[in-house]
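Troubleshooting: if your tokenizer reports a length mismatch, compare your output against this known-good record of 257 residues.
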Amino acid sequence: MQYTPASLVTLGLNSCEITEITSRLGIPSNDIHGIMFFQRRDMIEDFSRRLTKHEINFNLYGFDARLLAERVKTSTWLFEYQVFDRIDVSNIADYPFLGLKKTLVSMPPILEPVTDNPFATLLTTFINAIAGLQARQPRKFAARIRALTELVLPNPIKATSNSNPDDLFPLEKANYFKVAETFPDNDPLWTTYGFKEDFAGAARAAGLEEQINNPIISKWPWRINTSKSTEDIKKAYKLMPSSGTIGSERFVEWKRI
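Known-good structure output:
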């Protein structure tokens, strides 16, 4: 049976797990059922071990995220804890959702103060930031991105290096933006985004401080390392769709000051 990257998502597998299991156990990468067996076994065993060491509760509520701190503080009958050592807000700080400033102002009241827990962290994820900046400056990145398409795509884009991606055919355009999101170096773009959204000002207003070195998750956990061999780059790019990621996700961790 032939498996595509997209079909692996429906099986609950991603590229990171496939690479880790095949490397650790020597299983052929096309033995999907073998990989699934070990992945499921390891996951169940790990979860069972955690259950013996910790009490785990899942509480689901439906209301505006900006009201979370107020609800926690006023509804003591509903919430067992009044402050938390970690708050993960996914990408609600991203465009076009709640936004950075509103998110940062809303969460500190229920994040443990640094005097009680120096490791208490607010974790934010940005998925749309890089793609949005690239879309606004297409010519600036055209040459670099087109060079990368020639490296990883079987039928690379043939348009001239300074052309606008809007001039491409639909399939070429889709490939262009897929490569644009996946590969570094996005650090200069992120710096631009930080100034544009006034990260420093938003943090000061919320009584938070951005972590310089993320202790929980790396800043760009899923971007492809282009310093590796061409074969490794092609393999990583091919597996990317099965991971459910795009490569340009940026994680920012904050603590109270």
